[in-house]
Amino acid sequence: MLAAYGRVTTARASQSLALVRYASTSTKEKFRVLVIGGGSGGLSVANQIYNRFKAAGKPLNAGDVVVLDAADYHYYQPGWTLVGAGLRPKTDFRRPLASLFPSHIMHIAEDVKSFYPETSSVMTTSGRTISYDSLVVAAGLKTNWDSIAGLPQALADPSSGVSSIYSYDTCDKVWYDVDALRSGNAIFTQPAGVIKCAGAPQKIMWMAWDRYQKSGRGSNIKIDFMTGMPSMFSVKKYSDVLNALRVERGIGAEFQHSLISIDAANRKAAFKKADGSTVERDFTLLHVAPPMGPLDFIKGTPIADATGWVEIDQATLRHVKPEFGNIFALGDCSSLPTSKTAAAITSQAPVLTENLFSVMDTGKVCSAKYDGYTSCPLLTGYGELMLAEFKYGLVPKESFANYLGDQTKRRRLFYHLKKDLFPWAYWNRMVDGKWFGPSGPFRPKFV
Known about the structure:
By secondary structure, the protein is α/β, with parallel strands linked by helices. It is built from ten helices and 22 strands. The strands form six sheets. Strands 1, 2, 5, 6, 7, 8 and 19 form a seven-stranded mixed sheet that branches. Strands 10-17-11-12-13 form a five-stranded parallel sheet. Strand 15 (268-273) and strand 16 form a beta hairpin.
């Protein structure tokens, strides 16, 4: 399997690099569809758009769809929790970005500096102007490591006891620290506000708790969950069950406590409370989920809302301003009021694709609407997982409830979806635009 995959990626890499060379020397500076970002959303939707035109009997030419991204690597970020739990090596979740483009999708290895939606164009960091018929923004978000005093330095220090699953560089340090701890205080944090996969900060906490129980260390290690949020989870149904599990397992918690600084030398962490006061906690191990927010190159532009997210209609994924009707967005950079997860992208991409195709073909959107579906596979221990699925309004929308019953029940089947199926589906289907969330490999039909 791995050898076969290596051959495929090598072939793709040569095709993509050929297109990059062509793009850098060609006078062609306008494309039918320009996708900003080669992450989960960008790769998936670029392929789906190309495939949709082909299925309609109106195929695009090779190179009509272009992805703009200067990154060297593409990451399967949900896998970093598995790395932090000692289940997989982090190299399983990284591929050279250039290797993931098929021959018909062009890749330009540059980033965007400025948007000019009035002229349907962008300027790259090198000063190059690229025009488009339609624009898809799938640029992700910014992880604000520097917003917590002392955090970057603590992460760089192998003996600090401070780690995070929120980057490729540090996710393996999580497992090193968790597995090395024999006694003391283990604190797991979550910031207030929007972050990628808001369940991840407690997933790694549950896995550490289970590791300590199974290795006979449970009575020597005190675990606390310090979160800036008011509850364990945003959806009450799951939150109530998770909180009961926390109490049952003897895990402490402080809500509306946001980490603001770390003194790694003295193993102290400071938290700001809802009333503005601060409190210090001693730690032996500290796992940090850093604050996150919109990207600087999107904030303050004509396509952004007041916060800095790309302002799109929550059903059609088309820009809310009629004069920017050829602009769409999905994933973490968007203003969609739902949890920012790869699972959300699997349901957003086909809706965006259908509406973009309809706008380019007929001038107006079609009936395809996104209902806010997202999912959080909540690891609660080795061999068990609670599969939270919900839509807009924090209303549960469970795929397996009719067959297996209430999804607040922790199941081994769900654990293997997270550990085994989802990573396979991601590398073999989703980045190729052939994975559609709850529909699996079957593209949803829109009436």
